[in-house]
Amino acid sequence: MYFQIQTTLKNIEKQNIQFIIQENLRTIAPLAYFQFDDELQKTLQNIQTNVSSIKKLNIVKNPIHLQENQLLYPIRYKNRIIGYLFVQYDYDIMKQFFQKFDLYFILFTFLLIAFGLIFAQFINKKIDALYTFTSQLSDIDIRTTKQLKPTDNYLELIAITQAINTMLHAIHLYIQKIKQSEKHLIEAQKIANMSSWEYIKDANMFFCSDQLYRILGLNMKERLDWERFIAMIDPQEKIRFLTEIEKAYEKGLRFETVLKFHTPKGEKYLKNVIKVRKKHNKTITFIGIAIDVTEEYQAKKQVEYLAFHDPLTSLPNRASFQDMLENLSKIAKRSKERFALIYLDIDNFKFVNDTYGHEIGDRLLVDIANNLKNTLRDSDLIFRIGGDEFVVLIPKVQTKKSLDIVLEKIKHSIVKEYYYGNINFSVSCSLGVAFFPDDSDDIDTLIRYADIAMYEAKKSGKNRYVFFEKEMQKFLDYLQQTTQDLRKALKKDDELLLYFQPKMNIQNNKIYGAEALIRWNHPQKGLLAPNMFIPVAERSDLIEKIDEYVIKKSFQHLQEWSKDEELKDIVLSLNVSARQFRNPKFLNFLENNLKRFDIDPSKLELEITETLSMENISHTVNMLEAIKQIGFRVALDDFGTGYSSLNYLKRLPFDTIKIDKSFIQDIDQDPEDYQITKIIIDLAYTFKKEIVAEGVETKQQERILKDLKCFLAQGFLYAKPLPLNDFKKLITFHNR
After folding, report:
1. What is the average per-residue pLDDT within 369-395?
2. CATH number for the domain whose boundaries are 311-470
3. Which of the residues 163, 637, 652, 735 has the least number of beta carbons within 10 Å of its own beta carbon?
4. 604: buried, middle or exposed (CB in 10 Å: 19+, 13-18, 0-12)?
């Protein structure tokens, strides 16, 4: 590019303008080939800006075209032309540049296309190989260990294959681990009878483990949703469960509950441990662990049932009676109502047990229980409190007369003939009645009053009912006072005494033994016979303490007698109470005292009543054999008043049989008593037992006994029970 400036400016100003133009033209050269006109205009604009600083010159934007490549720009100063900028440029250089540029561009484009084609072909092969390889992915089974193989030898494809195989292997191991854990979980749930479930409330979605299907007895093909899950819950428990769910939903609580489900396999009890989970998206999920506790729950219910029910008759038992009586008394107090407490005892039930066996006795109790249920109203409450004793609670009793009807019904339901195979018999019952709150508003006192009334019914002849009367309170007071006095007497050594009634050998009129009988030297009442306090002691634990006192005193006397020539051969007998005989510590007590006093055990004879011996034959035989093994003698007391059979008599290892005095007192007047006595004596000889007659009071009775070959006797004919000193004098008189 060439330029020339013609102006009337001074040389210095002209040189400055030329310098400005030269400097600006340098920037246009590199770009002029592509955007010449635009660059030229920018350059001129820059020249204009810089030249204007010199006397405010102005180069006109629109040039005068002289030729194709020549431009003339007028230069103005103060609106007058003071000169011209002449610009001339040459296109030949540009043409040469573009000719070369076109050649290079064509060559470059050709090479670029060729390279692109080659690269595209290369890429296409890899894509084809990758496509072929990816077709294997659809056939991948992540449950197996089968690995992929590269479809070509490209390094990239080999690397991808190895990466995928590594990932598949890791996934396979993870799946195996999950399966193993799931298997263990299923096994653990089976062992623990446990299952799990999940309920998403907002979406109404329910999920559960297979174990829940099994527990609920459902087929896996059946659909178990939340609605059906809830529908299987017992209706009485469903409302409670839904209420607990709502509370947990509102407060986000964790709770436990046991629910009864009605399933195709019957009733199931599931313990549900439920937790509420709230997510950030406000979704509420109930997560539950359901444990099958059916067996435990039924066992618990059975234990609870047995704790409050009699297993034989299925009636509520004593514990249930106490609870119900307490609740009924509270209700009666609030409503100011009265109720009746009826104590019922089966008359002669012991006879049935002893004669026909416990199986028949049990069947009788079941029938009586059923008769009571069928006779009384649903509102009336029946309990079996032990043995042959029942209690009936009659709520809302108006008058004694209205209760008379109920009592008569109870009597008639029990008093009748009972048939069990070839066995038939009849029984009756005795009833005692006390009213709440008329007789007492204290339940323990009320029970005692009804018990006293029942014993009064038995004393009055049985097969009747008796209402408690205030006069009976005197007997209760007597029991309490006598029990209290007895406890004090046992702590002393001068109130309870042993008296001795001699046993005679009526052949030689010598005393060979004695029976130790207790007496109570009461501080206020004087000397009391056993019938005045032993029945009281038998109603408490005092009877065992009295037995122990008598046994220890007897051991002490025998120890002393062993050193006395007149007394050393005397055999001392004493009675053993039923409670003491059943005491598992009784044998140890005998052995310990035997060692303590060091006596000859054959000089002590323990008397067991016939009735007691028949209660439990196996226990009686074992106990008697153990007693005899120690060396003591044993006697069957009051024989003939019980119901023992010949077979039992043969089994029981008694040394002595004592004929009850009820047969002796009329032996000279009543042929039946005579025959019974003769039979007993013959039995004793048959079984090689020693035979003793009790209650001999006349010489005529003694003569008959001699004729029947019973030579051992005791009774008032020879002496009443005597204090120790008087007994010793009698021994000296008869045996000198």
Report:
1. 94
2. 3.30.70.270
3. 163
4. buried
Q: Does domain 487-735 have CATH number 3.20.20.450?
A: yes
Rounded Cα distance, 548 and 542, in Å: 10
pLDDT at position 603? 95
SS3 for 714-735, per residue? ECCCCCCCECHHHHHHHHHHHH
Of 88-92, 343-347, 364-368, which gets the smallest average pLDDT?
A: 88-92
Number of Cβ within a 10 Å radius of residue 144: 9
- Whether the pLDDT of residue 117 is over 60: the answer is yes
Architecture of domain 192-300: 2-Layer Sandwich (3.30)
Rg for the chain (alpha carbons), in Å?
Answer: 61
Q: Which amino acid is present at 412?
A: H
Tokens representing residue 270 in the block: 């599931």
Same fold, 311-470 and 487-735: no
Three-state secondary structure call for residue 201: coil
Burial class (CB in 10 A: 0-12, 13-18, 19+), 726: middle
Q: Calculate the alpha carbon distances from 152 to 128, 133, 138, 139, 691 in Å.
A: 10, 8, 18, 18, 120
Question: Model confidence over 185-197: pLDDT tens digits?
Answer: 555 555 556 888 8
Q: 3-class DSSP state for residue 292?
A: strand
Q: Residue type for 223, please? A: R
Per-residue H/E/C for 422-486: CEEEEEEEEEEEEEECCCCCCHHHHHHHHHHHHHHHHHCCCCCEEECCCCHHHHHHHHHHHHHHH
Omega into 437 within 30° of 0, i.e. cis?
A: yes
Domain parsing of the chain, residue ranges: 2-90, 192-300, 311-470, 487-735
- The length of the chain is 736
Please report the DSSP string for 591-632 in residue order: HHHHHHHT--GGGEEEEEEHHHHTT-HHHHHHHHHHHHHHT-
Claim: this prediction has a pTM higher than 0.70? no
Q: How confident is the model at residue 35 (pLDDT cuts 50, 70, 90)?
A: low
CB 71 within 8 A of CB 45: no
